[in-house]
Specification:
about 180 residues; Aminopeptidase; 5 helices; Acyl_CoA_acyltransferase; Bact_Acetyltransf; GNAT family N-acetyltransferase; EC 2.3.-.-; transferase
Length: about 180
């Protein structure tokens, strides 16, 4: 649970794996993510908004169980306020790739980011993958510093952004 002592009331959010019944709230969070940080994710807001609800529901159901792909959410009750996903690395059996990390702006700085990453890390360890890997767009210094504070280290690896040729991403790793 997260507490934010910076506001007059204490706010709490449960960090947990998504459940099938979260599909509509996950869709709303996904649209917020894409509107707030369009370069950070691999689809456009228009594409996500056009996707039918049953596709969101299928994705949430798939990531709600199993060891190959998982989504963790921050749920204060009502609207979701954070997300972090994890999936197997195709060529590295001991690595979980973290993806689609997002914290709603009003919850940034509350410790929620670390709790979401911890959720993915615990799942990764339980699945026998002792290492985490994530990619950050070069120049996204806020995200880079946040991940450094959580123990991630820049590996020196740079790769082209998968959808925007003008951008480059860097790899960061840490133990799960």
């Amino acid at each position: 649970m997260t507490t934010d002592m910076g506001s007059p009331a204490v706010r709490l959010a449960e960090i947990r794996r998504v459940r099938p019944e979260d599909a509509a709230r996950m869709r709303a969070l996904r649209l917020e993510m894409l509107a707030d940080a369009p370069l950070a994710f691999l689809e456009t807001l228009a594409d996500a908004a056009a996707r039918p609800h049953n596709e969101y529901a299928a994705r949430v159901a798939y990531t709600s169980a199993g060891s190959s792909n998982a989504q963790f959410i921050a749920d204060p009750g009502g609207r979701l306020v954070g997300h972090a996903g994890g999936t197997t690395a195709p060529n590295e059996p001991g690595v979980t790739v973290i993806y689609a990390v997002y914290v709603t702006p009003t919850w940034r700085g509350s410790g929620l980011l670390g709790e979401l990453i911890d959720g993915v890390a615990a799942w990764s360890r339980a699945c026998g993958r002792p290492e985490l890997l994530l990619e950050v767009v070069v120049g996204n210094d806020r995200a880079y510093r946040a991940y450094q504070r959580l123990g991630f280290q820049d590996t020196g690896v740079r790769v082209p952004h998968p959808t925007i040729p003008a951008l480059t991403e860097l790899h960061m790793r840490r133990p799960a």
